[in-house]
User: Fold this.
Amino acid sequence: MLDHGGHLAGLNDRQRAAASHGPEGAGPLLVIAGAGSGKTRTLAHRVAHLLAGGADPGRILLMSFSRMAAQELTRRVERLLAGSDRAWPAGALCWSGTFHAIGARLLRENAGRLGLDPDFVIHDREDSADLMNLARHGLGLSSTEKRFPAKGSCLAIYSRCVNAGTPLPEVLADRFAWSLPWENDLKRLFGAYVAAKQAQNVLDYDDLLLAWAQAMEDESFARWAGAQWDHVLIDEYQDTNRLQARILMALKPDGRGLTVVGDDAQAIYGFRAATVRNILDFPKAFEPPATVIALDRNYRSTGPILAAANAVIGQARERFAKELWTDRAGGSKPQLVTLRDGRDQARHVAGRILAAREAGLRLKDQAVLFRTSSHSAELEIELTRRHLPFVKFGGLKFLSAAHVKDLLSVLRLRQNPRDRVSGFRMLQLVPGIGPGTAARVLDALEAAPAPAEALRRLAPPPRAAADWPALVELMTAPAGWPDLIGAARAWYAPHLDRLYEDADSRRADLEQLERIAAGYPDCARFLTDLTLDPPEATSAEAGVPLRDDDYLILSTIHSAKGQEWRSVFVLNAVDGCIPSDLGTGSEAEIEEERRLLYVAMTRAKDSLALGVPLKFHVTQQARFGDRHLYARRTRFIPDSILSQFEQVYWQDPPGPDEPADGTEAPRLDLRRRMRDMWA
Ligand code: ATP
Ligand code: MG
Assistant:
């Protein structure tokens, strides 16, 4: 095995076989293995090894599930090469990113030959839902038919049809269990939605994959695209959908130069139409079939953590190929911490984290994971109260804050005057302009060959005559980048003050946005990046300045994929949360939730705890309204595997007004109640 420059050191035999697989242009390779077995590490070493062997970094396509994951992978490769005579300047691996971002770039660069306008604007899910809603209103499907699916559901159905390549009736029947009378109306609606996107020169997230996949059906384009890269490597392959697999197969029909890695036990994006079949069917998709390498040694977690995680996934309906082992002896069993309610859980977690920090563990080495973004609310309040800085991933994005969307709508409308979602938003910021007036203005812009000119000639709406000239000036005056965002911010300032009570903190966000914008060469690139991978919300927005750069990570389990921390706390390990659905989920959905818990548990290196609040606040269940439920420990930790955990009962120490424990019998003996629940 040739090791140019020692890039295979630090790998075990199987990892090394994967990293050095085949000579130049080798046959397809699949690395399928459990959590923490070094798949991502092996992938990084493989790229370093290829580069050290003379591969051209501009001809390597490296894809992962988030921009952050892709950047981390790239950094790892650069670190491996640093100091060798094959070191590359940062950015040499220029084709690294998410499927969607790579798709956007390819489509833009090749817009001419694909019949697209290169200035297309990308809509995020929220914009798409808004546009779907406009289309719905346009067809009169909302007001007359009360039971017609809500805008979010319409988009979900549409998205599933596109990503899974499944015909509408099938999606309606097996996924949404809705009766078919809506089929024709939905078809009309989706037709109108597509027409609206095209009229407005908009692509949505799904289009980035769909258009790429469709382009690949053209033989000459596919041949050209396939020839751009000698190696295509993909991490987390278990969470790709049919369109992504189609793109891949068309890029490298014989599989030469193709490497995919993943873990079928960690497939957690079925709800977004990802299919684990992609990874399972990969080996036999080629002739000769792909080389398959399985890794079974876990380097991440201590024995007791791995044993508990294995026990959880061992209960799955499906049998996964491998059971992991580790030689990381020592460490304690994961804790199952029973608490009174969410508030106690928040206090307990904050206390634990502080104690761990005092014992020498940095905040950065600790993470708190949860099923749904809103579940961290109580904890965020508690952390803010105790001045514990944190960064939250996968939560409410900075980008979806109303004032940020307002400002972006200005930029987007200026960039693309036919974008109606942005148009409605921006125009209605002006007092005196309502939906009717906005629609008339947008109709005029849409019909005009030169929208900027048309706007200048338009008569000012009577009730907004005073504010009209400033708006026209902003939309039409020549402006460089990033001056444009400065001008937009100045224009927006009085509206911000009028619209929001907390205008000060919102103004700070917009200044922050302008600073981010200044790092981009032009408006189009800025908007594309922001839409595809918006910055994360931090506690700076929650009022805690990030003084030092040690901060705690809060993350949804979905966004924590692929990462690891020394200490992990999982919130709300109760039924109704994991699994999230109170009994209505299909079996496939419940199984996906089990894998989600497995993903959460396998993020921990040294210490793991799961919270079981007995009183669990349920808000998202419309059926029950907003109320408390007495929760049960998640069904994924049944009695039969309870011995893998250490059980802890935690009650908040009494405050100054409460009797100290023991001085007086508590009216409700919750400790006992908690114990009894497991008896
Ligand atoms: P996941 O399924 O969660 O994405 P993974 O299989 O990609 O996990 P990695 O993140 O690559 O696993 O590796 C897990 C941890 O184990 C990392 O800290 C990595 O550095 C370490 N590791 C992997 N292989 C080895 C090895 N051969 N020697 C030492 N440490 C290793
Ligand atoms: Mg990984």
The chain has a mean pLDDT of 85. The longest strand covers residues 604-618.
